[in-house]
Amino acid sequence: MEIHLEDFQQKLREYAKLNEQIIFLEGVAEVIAANLNGQQTHDDDYRKDYLMFCLTKFTKTLNSILVLLEKNLNEDALILTRSNYEVVIHAKALVNDREMIKHFIEYKLGLEKERNYRFAKDKNGRILSNKIIDKRFPDRTIRYISSIKEIAIKAGEKSSYRHIYRFLCEQTHCNLLTSGYYREGVYYSVDNGTEGAKLNVILFNVGLCLKLYNACLDSDLLGEDFEEIEDILCSILMNDKLMLQEWFEIEEQRVRNLIDEASLVELKSINEYIKVVENSKWALIKD
Fold first, then answer.
1. pLDDT for the residue numbered 59
2. What's residue 61's pLDDT?
3. CA 173, CA 54: separation in Å to the nearest integer?
4. What is the DSSP letter of 116?
5. pLDDT, tens digit, for every residue of 250-263?
6. Which residues pair with 143 in a beta bridge?
7. CA-CA distance, 3 to 10, in Å (whole number)?
8. What does the pLDDT read at residue 192?
9. Buried b (16+ CB within 10 A) or exposed e, 216-252
10. Contact at 8 Å (CB) between 126 and 89?
11. 3-class SS at 78?
């Protein structure tokens, strides 16, 4: 079966609708509801709320990305993709390590205005961003995980951090290396939307959504209403992951076939593109 990029763009539309269905079924903020009703809360209530927060944030951003793609604003959609990457690694880290909820909620909120925690300092008085002190026990320090790199490692996403996140940061920041996205030849322009950016946006978000579905299934945090969705997610993960892998293999072969007829200038560009495809395949297909 021939696979086109538009097929994956349609997948993204379908994922967005499915995500909205999950949010409708499981979207009660358990901790807030319990506090309003004077009920007790448990650790898993916080973990479920955070997972649903991640899914909701991812979906709103995905809807924005789809609008930008329709308007051919592919580079802007690529910038938003970085946000979705960060959401996915937070969700996966939460599922992989029960202790991460403390870093995402208790420590994060407790550091606001030094309510319950404060950053530790070295002997020269410089703030240590990875160490905090519980104000109740000032002699003890706690390792605080807040950097994207450390969260990605906790999420099992070291490879995607290296190959995808750094690339997305280059597109987000004011980096002159990306000026080709904003020029037509020697003229700067707001009209052009490059196909390369569109390719990355679509493939990255398909891969990220599949990773988020894996996290939802692995979490055991969602309730009985979620059971009717589980089979759908399992089918998507099996079929769409294979579809994504097949596209990468076909694309690699297609580009390699161009090498024999390429000029030296084209050859450099082709080899760089092959490297991007190979790195992206590894980072997206790997759980």
1. 98
2. 98
3. 23
4. S
5. 877 877 777 777 77
6. 131
7. 12
8. 72
9. bbebebbeeebeebeeebeebbeebbebbeebbeebe
10. no
11. helix
Sheet with 141-143: list strands edge to edge.
117-121, 127-134, 141-143
Whether residue 33 lies inside any domain: the answer is yes
Q: Is residue 148 part of a domain?
A: no
Two tokens at 154?
Answer: 């906790």
Cα(39)–Cα(8) distance, integer angstroms: 44
Place of tokens 């950053």: 119
Q: Would you give the distance in Å from CA 128 to the centre of its chain?
A: 27
For the stretch 21-40, pLDDT in tens is: 999 998 889 899 999 999 99
Residue 136: how many other CB atoms lie within 10 Å: 8
Question: Which helix (H) or strand (E) covers residue 142, if one does?
Answer: strand 141-143
Domain with 88, as residue range(s), is 5-100+157-285
In a domain, 262, yes or no: yes
Residue 16 is assigned to a structural domain of this protein: yes
In angstroms, the Cα distances linking 179 to 45, 76, 182, 275 are 46, 13, 5, 21
Tally of CA atoms within 13 A in the half-sphere of 92 that contains its CB: 25
Residue 265's pLDDT is: 62
103 by Cβ neighbours in 10 Å (0-12 / 13-18 / 19+) ranks as buried
pLDDT bin (cut points 50, 70, 90) of residue 154 is very high
Which H or E element spans position 278? Answer: helix 264-285
Dihedral of CA atoms 280, 23, 107, 91 in degrees, nearest 10, equals -20
Tell me how many domains the chain contains.
Answer: 1
Q: What's the mean per-residue pLDDT of the chain?
A: 89
